[in-house]
Amino acid sequence: MVDIEYVEAIPQSRQGAEFYVKSYGHERYATLTKDDRKLHIDRVGDMYLTIPNLINGELEESGKIITDTDELLEAGIKDDIQLRQVLKTLGYAGWAVYHQNPYWEIVSDYDPDGVIGGADFYEAVDEAIKLLDDENFWEGMKDFE
Fold first, then answer.
1. Are 108 and 131 found together in one domain?
2. Same domain, 94 and 58
3. What is the pLDDT of residues 51-71, one digit of tens each?
4. Domain total for the chain?
């Protein structure tokens, strides 16, 4: 049986790591344990997102630079669906929105470099649960002990 300890509740509508950038670097959001094996889900990476201004029907570079979750919410982007719509719309317009983007990473106490856990928080949790049972993964962890 896998024991999961969450640092805070992650709603289904806000699973993107962009909604959990409170500081630079990484922040831990969950720890999964099975027997003597332990993995963590961390939010990793900094956010540098550019939302251009729309002036007279044209996108202007004098837009808003978003570097944390509070700024994202202040820009009116409140959930994963809105974020994906903004990114898709601006991408179609040829606008390079992301310069740096955060993501979820699965890390162990042995190997802090970790593995990419997915775009959504619960995808990362599901992947970590699979890794807890993956003998090849844990055999590779012995190199870091």
1. yes
2. yes
3. 887 666 777 777 788 888 999
4. 2
* Cα distances (angstroms) measured from residue 40 to each of 3, 8, 12, 24: 12, 14, 19, 18
Q: Contact at 8 Å (CB) between 40 and 108?
A: yes
Residue 104 contacts residue 124 (beta carbons within 8 Å): yes
Please tell me the pTM assigned to this model.
0.81
Distance CA 60, CA 45 (A): 27
pLDDT in tens, 30-41: 999 999 999 999
- CA distance readout (Å), 104 to 68, 95, 124, 144: 15, 24, 7, 21
Question: What do you get for the CA distance between the two ends of the chain, in Å?
Answer: 24
Q: How far apart are CA 51 and CA 97, in angstroms?
A: 7
